[in-house]
Every structure is written in C-alpha cells, then in structure tokens.
Amino acid sequence: MMAKLSRELKAKGVSVVDLSLGEPDFRTPQHINDAAIQAMNDGYTKYPPVAGYPELKQAVCTKLKRDNNLDYTPEQIVVSTGAKQVLANVILSLINPGDEAIIPTPYWVTYASLVQLAEGVCKFIPCSIDEHFKLTPEKLEAAITDRTRLFIFSSPCNPTGAVYSQAELAALKDVFVKYPEITIISDEIYEYINYTGKYESIAQFPELKDRVAIVNGFSKGFAMTGWRLGYLAGSAELAKGCEKLQSQFTSGANSIAQRAAITALTADIAPSLEMVKAFKEREAYFITAMQSIPGFKINHPEGAFYAFPDISAYFGKSDGTTTINNADDFAMFMLNTAHVTGVSGTAFGDDNCIRFSFATSMDQLEEGIRRITAAVAKLA
Ligand code: PLP
C-alpha cells in the first residue's frame, strides 16, 4: 500500500525518499548474469526437474557444508520459486486445520498469512525492543500446547535485524527437544547480511536437525530478488511432501535462474561480501543518526538492512491537523509530511514501531534523516 501511495505522490512530481524497500539496491553480480545467458545458449530452456537440477541441489549441499558445517544430501533439498514458495510448501505440507504455529513477533508478514491459508492458528509471542526482539525459552515453552506443530522465525530477522547467538539458539533447542511433534522453520534468507561475524543456524544441534526446515534463497545475499529462487533443506520426508505440492502448483523453478544459481553458490562470494560491507557502513550511519531523533527508541540491528525504531512516544501528538494514534498514522504522517516512506510495524505484528530500510544510497539516507527530523519536530 505504501508503495502505491508513494508512486502516486511521485507521479504528482513530489520527490519521495523511499525507505520501504525490502531488497538490496545492488545489481546482480555480472558473473551470475553471464551464467544465465550461457544457460539459455546451452539450451536450459525446457522444464527442469520439479525439485531442482541435481547439480543445483548438490551445490546447495556443498554450500551448507562450506558455510554452515551442515551435512545434507540432495534428496533433502527442494528448489522453489523464491524462499516465499519454500515457506508455502512447508507450511501447507505440515499444517492441518486447527494446528497451531508459534510465531514470535515482530515477524515477516507472510508467515501468518500462510498459516491462515492452511487454516492453522497463529500463536504470536510478543518480543519487545527491550528484549532485543528475541524470544526467551521461558516464553516459548509457555506458548506450546498439544496442538503446536510449527515454530517459525527468521534470524537475521525482518523487520528487526535481530540475530540469535549460538547460546540463545541452544536455549530454545533445550525446549524443542521436549516437544518432538514441532517442526522448526528457520528462515535464513538474510544469512549473508549479518554483522556479527559468524552465522549460527538452529539446525546445528544434532538432536534437532531432522526437525528443522532451513529456508534460504538467492534474493538478499546475491541481490537476485527478481530471479525468484529459494530452497529448502530439511528431512527427506518433508522434502518429498514439498516436492509433491510444488509439482501441482508450479513445477520446477525457472530453469535459467537455477543454472545461474549454481554459479552463485560455487563461485567466489566476494561481490556479496562487498555489498554487505556497504550495508554495514550505512547501518552505522543510519542507526546513529536515528538515535539522535527525539522520541525514537532504537536498537542496533545485527543483520538484514532495516531499522525498526519504537516511535510510540509520538502517540497522542499532533501537528495541528493530523493526530498520531498508532504506527499506521505515523507511517502516513511520514509519507504525507516528510515525503519519506517506511512500513508501519502493524504489518509485522508490532504496533509501536516503523520499519525503515537502509538498502538505498547514503545520499537518500541522509536526506531521509533530515526530513524525518524536520517532520517530527512539528509534533506536539
Ligand atoms: N523471508 C524473509 C524474512 C524475507 O524478508 C523475504 C523477502 O522479503 C523472504 C523470506 C522471501 O524471499 P524470496 O524473495 O526468496 O521469496
């Protein structure tokens, strides 16, 4: 909706600083584009196998060993049309009507919509900014019932940038081992965009590994959002279920994108690391600048490319014409008064916050900060 309103403003000639984007502002690395062109010329333009080309599934296994020290075999991998389809496959495979899925908030909006599509019940666990938006084992255990079948989270998290440490994951694991009927969806799409130095997956615990569905893809780490390619790593049984579902919905993911993805995974990932370096520099500027805006309470994200400030200090305040009562009002005020787009936290299950993306140029970020600062100064 914000994107649409922002386009309408732009069409009227207004200069809008767009901080609502959920994708890298970088181009796909050239060697990956070249591999796609080569694939077309080599004839990879026919239906691919439903679960993905064997070479790509093998490349995913090699990547999981190289980056995560995890052992998977190709029959445990399913390649899909974006991480989003991986999530849809897993959730629709596992959730029957009335089954419960535990989702810590803030969360990526698609999780809840897919659970609802499967006629499951979302059990949200609020995690506040004071908890660094992370779930504790006590809160997890309190939310589990005999209908709980799924737990869904992302680390690094969209929208908060929270990254779970190994110790934090181990503490959650100690709870999950007591409840063998729960599958854990670990959304690792922002794996490379991680400022902590080392990536930790909850699949690293052998007691849990078979019950973890790793969801990952090419959109964020390789700047390949438009290619629509993601993958599942999970138990062979889950992979079989996902393959079955996918064979009727869409068949195999785009053949050309799959061939290019083999190159993405097997070639040097230096271009991805360069991109992450740029995000880290912007993060340092953007978060510090945001901390000095009055009324903004903000954590340093440890991954992804979003700031998620708590702006509830402005609830009840007005610029004389508009009163801010919630995060949706604040987002609209930002658009109409500052001409800056963000995404209201309501979309992510948090009514006190707003998400601003720093996946844009430093110039735009500086201009965004100037405009936001000037706009909130009008609120009293
Ligand atoms: N998971 C999270 C947390 C995301 O933020 C996104 C994209 O915004 C996705 C999954 C979907 O990724 P894909 O483009 O591979 O479908």
Write the layout of secondary structure elements.
Elements (H helix, E strand, L loop, with lengths): L1 H10 L5 E2 L11 H12 L12 H15 L8 E4 L1 H13 L5 E6 L4 H8 L3 E6 L10 H7 L4 E7 L11 H11 L6 E5 L24 E6 L12 E4 L2 H14 L5 H12 L3 H22 L14 E2 L19 H12 L1 E2 L1 E2 L9 E4 L4 H15 L4
Parallel strand pairs: 1-10, 3-4, 3-5, 5-6, 6-7
Antiparallel strand pairs: 2-8, 7-8, 9-12, 11-12
Helix pairs in contact: 2-9, 3-9, 4-5, 4-8, 10-12, 11-12
Provide an overview of this structure.
The protein is built from 12 helices and 12 strands. With 380 residues, the protein is of the alpha/beta class. The strands form 3 sheets. The chain has a 7-stranded mixed β-sheet with strand order 2-8-7-6-5-3-4, with helices on both faces. β3, α5 and β4 form a beta-alpha-beta unit. The structure holds pyridoxal-5'-phosphate (PLP).
